[in-house]
């Protein structure tokens, strides 16, 4: 099963330190070697919103949400089940510290 793990911006941003980089590099290396990590990346704060209504499509430039609600990064993972995805999310949060992440199952054809 595939899951999308998204990290939201911290309420109080902190500068990353060497320990964070070292621990995150090891975590990413482990997940990549096991085949669990399919993709990862950071997201720009701006974006484009498309809203359709009938034949009309409205395009609006972002950003759209308060900074504390913005998704700033993601990881697409392969996990046996939701429990395993949550455990990987817990490990991620322990490395990066206080904040919020969202995990959603990805449905595909």
Keywords:
Alpha-Beta Plaits; 4-stranded antiparallel β-sheet; 2 helices; 6 strands; alpha+beta; two-stranded antiparallel ribbon; single chain; 109 residues; globular
Overview of the molecule:
- With 109 residues, this protein is an alpha+beta fold.
- It has one domain: Dimeric alpha+beta barrel (Alpha-Beta Plaits, 2-Layer Sandwich).
- It has 2 helices and 6 strands, in the order E-H-E-E-E-E-H-E.
- The protein has a 4-stranded antiparallel sheet.
- Strand 3 and strand 4 form a beta hairpin.
- The two termini are 12 Å apart.
- 8% of the residues are buried.
- The mean pLDDT is 90.
- It comes from Streptomyces qinzhouensis.
- Pfam families: YCII.
- Belongs to the YciI family.
Q: Concise description?
A:
It comes from Streptomyces qinzhouensis. Helices cover 29% and strands 36% of the residues.
State the end-to-end CA separation: 12 Å
- Tell me the major beta sheet: 4 strands, antiparallel
> What proportion of the residues is helical, as a percent range?
25-40%
Tally of individual helices: 2
What's the order of the H and E elements?
A: EHEEEEHE
Please identify the oligomeric state.
single chain
The average pLDDT is 90
The number of domains is: 1
What is the topology, as strand order, of the major beta sheet?
2-5-1-6
**What global shape is seen?**
globular
Low-confidence stretches: none
């Amino acid at each position: 099963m595939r899951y999308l793990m998204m990290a939201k911006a911290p309420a109080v941003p902190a500068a990353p330190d060497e320990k964070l980089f070292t621990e995150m590099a090891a975590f990413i290396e482990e997940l990549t070697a096991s085949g669990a990590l399919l993709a990862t990346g950071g997201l720009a704060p701006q974006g484009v919103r498309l809203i359709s209504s009938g034949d009309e499509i409205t395009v609006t430039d972002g950003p759209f949400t308060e900074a504390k609600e913005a998704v700033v990064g993601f990881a697409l993972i392969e996990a046996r089940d939701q429990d395993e995805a949550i455990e990987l999310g817990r490990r991620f949060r322990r490395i990066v510290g206080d904040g919020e992440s969202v995990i959603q199952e990805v449905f595909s054809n």
